[in-house]
Amino acid sequence: MSTESDEVARALDILRAGGLVGLPTETVYGLAGDATNEAAVRRIFAAKGRPADHPLIVHIEDVSAMASWAAAVPPSAATLTAACWPGPLTVLVPRADHVLDVVTGGRDTVGLRVPAHPMALDLLQRFGGGVAAPSANRFGRVSPTTAAHVRADLGDLVDLVLDGGPCPVGVESTIVDCTVSPPQILRSGGIPDEDVATILDIAAASGPSRASGMLASHYAPTARVELAASLAAAEARAGELAESGLRVDVLDPTGDLALAAHDLFSRLREADARRLDVVVAVMPPAIGLGHAIRDRLRKAAGLG
Length: 304
Ligand code: TXA
Ligand code: MG
Prior knowledge:
Helices cover 35% and strands 16% of the residues. It has 304 residues and is an alpha/beta fold. It folds into two domains: 3-204, DHBP synthase (Alpha-Beta Complex); 224-300, Rossmann fold. α1 (4-16) packs across α5 (118-127). The chain is globular. The structure holds threonylcarbamoyladenylate (TXA) and magnesium ion.
């Protein structure tokens, strides 16, 4: 049996050699490569089947490392990261000159994040540089929240999957564009929209922009996803569909929202493992982690 620390040492060697590592974070597993190695970054896009114009988040070891990736740190980024890092927050800041175009999709901003997962932090601290990592799923599919999900999606395309257990948060980081005023939430995620608004002292109304084409991934299982406003409505609809001969189940992420977020992507993957035709999902309230869950369900339903 190798220890966790041995595994991280292997991952380090692989990153330094330009290879790819399945990286546990508190949100979802990432597909990690050295952000300064262009060939490694290209390998990430190839493994995911992801279009080149979708930029990657650079994962760094702490707040102070932001200065080596950003041309300038806007006050809003300094405030947010001081409050939320390590944690499920990504800030977009003006990029430093050396940041590869292949990482940013040629944009003049870069997304930065310090993940709150002990294995990820251990790796980042020992690596010392930046690790580019999108979610470790095939493009458009459901994000992985266990090491087994990563292996199922990417198999031999990843050199090593670090097993850090199931991701505690279960939905991706909240992305805030700190290059505009007021800062704008581009993707709801593990830090609730209300918390971002409170920390920045801005109106919660400046919440997720539906306009961001860059973020139109689908998080979709093979099963069709339908949305329902209540459990009663979902059960009625599921009954109808079952009667017409379809394999259907109800997904009800409305109780404990932290638990619902934690389980969401596993449930969607299970739907495919069970060969369901349709999942009827109850929309949770638009509060706290409910924002992120609603967003992922809308995307899974093709309404994103
Ligand atoms: O929780 C997370 O954020 C996970 C873990 C692995 O850190 N990562 C993740 O990465 O969800 P990804 O690539 O699956 O989603 C990041 C999103 C993409 O839609 C990408 O287009 C957008 O962020 N993005 C990244 N950098 C950007 C930039 N400079 N400008 C605009 N959008 C950006
Ligand atoms: Mg993704």
